[in-house]
Amino acid sequence: MLVTTHLYDGVKSLPLDVELYQHASSLPGGKQDPDFVKKPDIALKLIDKCLSRGWKPGVVLVDAG
């Protein structure tokens, strides 16, 4: 599963950043595995990355997964 940020002009979407999300069950240590990162934490990291580039998101969408 992926967590992404996109630039959207109202018509077209351009992916900016893509980060892999690994479900805890796919890691040897489950939720305690050092490589496990929750999707919201990945999303916040990507938003911070956008902000550091000077992009200011007008809309943030999050799925219910």
Describe how the helices and strands are arranged.
Elements (H helix, E strand, L loop, with lengths): L1 E7 L4 E8 L18 H14 L13
Antiparallel strand pairs: 1-2
Short descriptors:
65 residues, alpha+beta, two-stranded antiparallel ribbon, 1 helix, 2 strands, elongated
Describe this structure in words.
- The chain has 65 residues and is an alpha+beta fold.
- It has one domain.
- The chain is 22% helix and 23% strand.
- It contains 1 helix and 2 strands; from the N terminus they run ββα.
- It has a two-stranded antiparallel sheet with strand order 1-2.
- A hairpin with a 4-residue loop joins strand 1 and strand 2.
- The chain is elongated.
- It starts with a strand and ends in a 13-residue tail after the last helix.
- The model has no long low-confidence stretch (mean pLDDT 89).
Rg for CA atoms? 14 Å
Can you list the strand order of the major beta sheet? 1-2
- Strand content of the residues, in percent? 15-25%
Please tell me what the overall shape is: elongated
Order of helices and strands: EEH
Number of helices: 1
Largest sheet: 2 strands, antiparallel
The level of helicity is 10-25%
Name the average pLDDT. 89
Find the structural class using helix and strand composition.
Answer: alpha+beta
Cα separation of the termini: 10 Å
Total count of strands: 2
Low-pLDDT sequence parts: none
Instruction: Kindly give the count of domains.
Output: 1
